[in-house]
Amino acid sequence: MIFYFSGSGNSYAVAKQIADRIEGERVISLARFDDFKQCDNAERIGIVFPCYGASAPDIVLDFKNKLFKRINKTGKYVFAVITYAHSPGSSYLDFKEVVDAWFKVKMPENDSYGWWVPAPKKQKILLAQSVVEIDGFAKDIQNKKAIIMYRAIPGIRLVTHVGNKMVKNMYKDFDKMLYADDKCVKCQQCIKYCPVQNITFDNKPVWGTDCANCFGCVNRCPQSAIQVGKRTKGKRRYVHPDYKI
Predict the structure, then answer these.
(1) In the chain, which residues fall in CATH 3.40.50.360?
(2) What is the pLDDT of residues 221-240, one digit of tens each?
(3) Among the residues of the chain, which ranges form H helices?
């Protein structure tokens, strides 16, 4: 079983590429999963997720804690994969007690509020490189190898903690900054795309208070009509080409 959390498709695509190498393996969105009995007979349990501010998203950490309180890890190969645009930070340290293997892979940025989405040519280069890298460690996962792709750097935990705190402060009112501009055609696709079901509709999209800051609605809107304050207007969007669900 390979669980993933994804807004624009990077982590989904990684999970799917790994699963395709293992007969009978499946990928499952962790956002609304709560039937942990399904994990009882799993040989492998993986968690694939994006890096948020040099750490794992809160929704992923919460899922990880619930998962390992409810299942018996004995006899299971547990791995995690973090997708990142800049640095995976010290996110491994939040998982080191529960995983047998840890992998990382660089993917295109999807945050058009605090960063910049790369140009299409750069996206293609990064995605091509990621396919090769993922294929390499997918073999290790298939063979249940205990590999930790993490390099300890003195002070990284402190730097990550400070950086994560700054990022969380920057995005603390994210749900309040989201809105659909006059390009909105009322297609309501954003409701379908939200992994945490945080969007309703009242003539235009309305965001609740459970936003996971995944940028799924911003990037997947067919009209690029969803904005975050003023900083995303006119900026490039990104969706992984294999993200069709």
Answers:
(1) 2-167
(2) 999 999 999 999 999 999 99
(3) 10-19, 58-70, 120-142, 156-170, 174-177, 189-193, 216-220
- Alpha-carbon separation of residue 192 from 33, 97, 198 (angstroms): 17, 35, 10
Q: Please tell me the distance from the alpha carbon of residue 189 to that of residue 232, in angstroms, as a whole number.
A: 19
pLDDT of residue 152: 67
The residue whose two tokens read 């390992």 is 68
Q: Please state which architecture CATH assigns to domain 174-228.
A: 2-Layer Sandwich (3.30)
Helix (H) or strand (E) holding 180: strand 178-180
**What gap in Å lies between CA 221 and CA 6, rounded to an integer?**
15
| pTM recorded for the entire structure | 0.94
- What does the pLDDT look like over 161-210, one tens digit per residue? 776 777 777 778 898 999 999 999 999 999 999 999 999 999 999 999 99
Which residue carries 């007979």 as its tokens? 41
Angstrom CA distances, 36 to 40, 42, 98, 233, stand at 8, 11, 16, 41
